[in-house]
Specification:
Blueprint (H helix, E strand, L loop, with lengths): L2 H9 L6 H7 L17 H22 L5 H12 L1 H10 L10 H5 L6 H19 L1 H22 L5 H12 L5 E8 L6 E8 L2 E8 L2 H21 L1
Antiparallel strand pairs: 1-2, 2-3
Length: 232
């Protein structure tokens, strides 16, 4: 049994065109070291990102008729963000199947959220080309629905930036904005440092492997500061 066969068992999928799945698992870093690999997964990632957005939209529209379009948009954003899709990738041990160059593997690429998210999106893109949107829906709906219900019950669809904006506008009459104050590291392990500013004051600083993650971390730090002040 090949590695692709094992992965398909974990995914409960059977690709008619296994080469599509193989391409979905091909990280750019592996191309120079593997002459048998021709194309990285970036185009499939692009396609999968759009397909996931579409399927998530349909699932939420059909399953949550009580939510208005603003709530549906926030809930969809919570479901398809990098951290959530990388969590789904980990549930299938997708990182173990990704084809990486030696350097990327040695620096922890198999555990990196952005890489796992991209691989998951690429697999969905490959599934769409292999079997169509209905097959993608059948695969994704059982994954997305429990996450959607969990997110709603915990109000996790109100991400930290949204929560900070609601608090700042209510308590201070101001809207937060974010400024990148530092970037460090090589491209494949870059770290961004961002500050959250409200009414010309720094309320929080956050770091992450993307500007979006750093902004969320800065918003979280600002919310922690606001909560600490309220408790005094």
């Amino acid at each position: 049994m090949t590695d692709l066969d094992v992965l398909q068992q974990r995914l409960c999928l059977s690709f008619r065109q296994p080469d599509l799945l193989r391409r979905a698992l091909t990280h750019r870093s592996s191309l120079n070291e593997r002459p048998d690999l021709i194309e990285a997964n970036e185009r499939l990632e692009f396609l999968g990102d759009a397909v996931i957005d579409f399927v998530a939209t349909v699932v939420l529209f059909e399953q949550f008729p009580e939510l208005d379009e603003g709530e549906l948009t926030r809930l969809r954003s919570a479901l398809v963000r990098t951290e959530q899709l990388s969590r789904l990738a980990r549930s299938f041990d997708l990182g173990a199947a990704v084809l990486l160059g030696r350097g990327e593997a040695e620096t922890g690429g198999r555990e990196r959220d952005a890489l796992l998210c991209a691989a998951f999106e690429a697999v969905v893109g490959a599934l769409f080309l292999d079997a169509g949107v209905q097959a993608v829906s059948t695969f994704l709906e059982p994954l997305l629905l429990p996450l959607a219900r969990e997110t709603l019950s915990s109000q996790g669809h109100l991400d930290d930036k949204s929560r900070l904006q609601e608090w700042a506008q209510s308590a201070l009459g101001a809207t937060p904005h974010y400024s990148t104050i530092a970037e460090s590291g090589p491209d494949h392990v870059k770290e961004f440092t961002v500050e959250a500013i409200i009414a010309k004051q720094r309320y929080g600083v956050g770091r992450g492997s993307s500007k979006q993650q750093a902004e969320q971390a800065a918003a979280r730090a600002a919310l922690d500061r606001a909560a600490a002040h309220r408790c005094r």
